[in-house]
Design goal:
Layout lengths: L1 E6 L3 H12 L4 E7 L2 H11 L3 E4 L8 H11 L4 E6 L4 H10 L3 E4 L4 H12 L4 E2 L1 H12 L16 H11 L4 H8 L3 H15 L4 H10 L8
Parallel strand pairs: 1-2, 1-3, 3-4, 4-5, 5-6
Helix pairs in contact: 2-3, 4-6, 7-9, 7-10, 8-9
Length: 217
């Protein structure tokens, strides 16, 4: 029996996936979460075989959550199920430890196939995703350009950035991350300096472009 955990901020997606997967004799859904922080905490406890996860989630996006899960639960395999089809998103997902990547337009049978295949130890990428990934690595190294990159930020700075663009105050962020508001202000200043972005609208635009958050989060 393959145990699966579902992480997505849309209830209709979570419920739809659960119904699809639980209709299979060899798959059971052991838990669900609506944000990245909740997902990491639950997955570290449940240690499912496979995680189906969105990229754009509140509090902690899927990429950052996947990195934590990959370190804490080495036998748990991660499949991203996302609306983002850009090569940068896919590349970041793979670097974060994903063994699979599907687009949300994928048919139900492809999701089931991906869960079974990834559980068996074989990576699974939908055809369009595979083509985008090949094209991405066939090009010159994109890191050579002068555009700001998430790689410039530390893990804690990326956590802070997501919460800043979600509209939370320094006090609220400090409470979530167990840090003082003064420390959060320091992180905020470092983020703006490293990215050369000096206002919140600019940070929001950057975060949306990088798939850290969405307009409706």
């Amino acid at each position: 029996m393959v145990s699966v955990f579902i992480a997505d901020d849309h209830a209709i997606v979570r419920d739809g996936l659960r119904m699809l997967l639980e209709a299979q004799d060899d798959i059971e859904v052991v838990g669900m979460a609506s944000d990245g922080l909740q997902a990491v905490k639950s997955i570290e406890s449940l240690k499912p075989d496979v995680v189906l996860m969105d990229i754009s989630m509140p509090k902690l996006n899927g990429i950052e959550a996947a990195q934590q899960i990959a370190m804490a639960c080495r036998n748990t395999r991660i499949i991203f199920l996302s609306m983002h089809d850009g090569s940068e998103y896919i590349s970041r997902a793979v670097k974060a430890g994903a063994q699979g990547y599907l687009l949300k337009e994928s048919a139900g049978q492809e999701v089931i196939k991906a869960v079974r295949q990834v559980h068996s130890g074989i990576r699974y990428f939908s055809q369009r995703v595979s083509n985008d990934l090949i094209d991405f690595y066939a090009k010159d190294n994109p890191a050579k350009n002068n555009h700001p990159s998430l790689d410039q930020l530390s893990f804690r700075e990326r956590e802070t950035l997501q919460l800043v663009v979600e509209g939370k105050s320094s006090a609220e962020i400090g409470e979530i991350l167990y840090l003082s508001p003064k420390t959060i202000e320091t992180y905020r200043s470092r983020i703006m300096e490293k990215l050369n972005i000096h206002d919140i609208p600019g940070l929001v635009k950057f975060a949306i472009k990088k798939g850290m958050t969405t307009i409706d989060c």
